[in-house]
Write a structure and sequence with these properties.
29% of the residues lie in helices and 17% in strands. The protein contains four helices and seven strands, in the order H-E-E-H-E-E-H-E-H-E-E. The strands form two sheets. The protein has a five-stranded mixed sheet, covered by helices on one side. Strands 1-7 form a two-stranded parallel ribbon. Helix 4 links the parallel strand 5 (117-122) and strand 6. The protein is elongated and about 95 Å long. The model has no long low-confidence stretch (mean pLDDT 90).
């Protein structure tokens, strides 16, 4: 006679749900830490131009954004229809660009301060003189890495 007997009914044991709350909370914490919140509300019209030679910025934490365009309909009464500069959630003058870049640079960690890129999100109908003035201010504060944000497409479509 054998010491061990096989079960002949073959029932599967019930699935334990004891670890289910742990898994749910682990997923919750993962998505809470990975989710990025929107930084600012765009208050200027921002129809970006097309370009053929584009490259995607890899690390978004190394980018400082400057928006340029004419104010949206709700801000037209206060600020007019000329192109304006938006820094974070506020309209600003050209002279404020340098101080803004220095303040944003100071917020970053020390190893990122030398590799920051300034991304200009400029409406395709914006005045080029304003962009030139912004670039002069960026040179004054030694922010020489400048990126123009565009859409991929035929550059000749910008002439329309």
């Amino acid at each position: 006679m054998s010491k061990f007997k096989k079960k002949k009914d073959g029932e599967l044991p019930a699935v334990s749900t004891a670890s289910l709350p742990d898994i749910v909370f682990m997923l919750l914490f993962f998505f809470m830490t990975v989710t990025v919140m929107k930084d600012s509300t765009i208050k200027v019209e921002n129809v970006l131009p097309n370009a053929t030679e584009i490259k995607k910025l890899e690390k978004k934490d190394r980018v400082i954004y400057i928006f340029v365009g004419k104010p949206t309909k709700e801000y037209e009464n206060v600020y007019g229809t000329e192109s304006k500069i938006q820094l974070n959630d506020k309209f600003a003058d050209v002279k404020a660009v340098g101080d803004y870049i220095l303040a944003e640079r100071a917020k970053k960690s020390e190893e990122l301060q030398n590799v920051l890129t300034t991304a200009l999100k400029v409406d395709k109908n914006a005045n080029m003189g304003l962009i030139s003035d912004i670039k002069q201010e960026l040179r004054k504060v030694n922010a020489l890495k400048v990126n123009y944000t565009t859409y991929e497409g035929d550059a000749f479509n910008n002439l329309q």
